[in-house]
Amino acid sequence: MTGLVLKLGPHERVLVNGAVIENGDRRSRLNIVTPNANILRLRDALHPDEVTTPVRRVCYILQLVLSGDVSPADAKMQILRGLEQLSQVFKDSDSRGIIETATTNTVDQKFYPALKALRGLMSRENRLLAAEQP
Q1: pLDDT along the chain (134 residues), means of 10
Q2: What is the torsional sign of CA 19, 60, 83, 102?
Q3: CA 99 to chain centre
Q4: Residues 66 and 14 both lie in one domain
Q5: Of 26, 131, 114, 7, whose CA–CA distance to 65 is shortest?
Q6: Which of 116, 127, 63 is nearest to 89 (CA)?
Q7: Distance of CA 88 to the CA centre of its chain
Q8: Range(s) of the domain holding residue 22
Q9: Looking at residue 96, what DSSP letter applies?
Q10: What confidence score (pLDDT) does residue 2 get?
Q11: DSSP labels for 38-55?
């Protein structure tokens, strides 16, 4: 069986195609077999007040698609534009690989894997921004 495997902790919440699902008292594992299902772990969700950097802005747009608040057609070009801008800043091969993965997944309308990949740039961005502070 292929697809996304979600491992949930006790009482962890996840958004699946617009519906909030809460796990029970024990850890569990869900196999999502429907292709292109919109999945968002609520513990990973960004609050609008946290969207203060370029990487977080692109992640937030991806999150809005996954939550059903923005249509994929409306968001796709904005996400790709944001990824292109990030590629102008992140020049190392690891970061470029992450951006390429996010770009490919966005083009293929696989928004959860795109978000998952792009979250890997958040710590790098934080380090870059911290280095710029006097």
Answers
A1: 79 89 93 82 90 96 92 94 95 95 95 92 88 72
A2: negative
A3: 12
A4: no
A5: 114
A6: 127
A7: 20
A8: 4-43
A9: H
A10: 58
A11: -EEEGGGPPPGGG--SHH
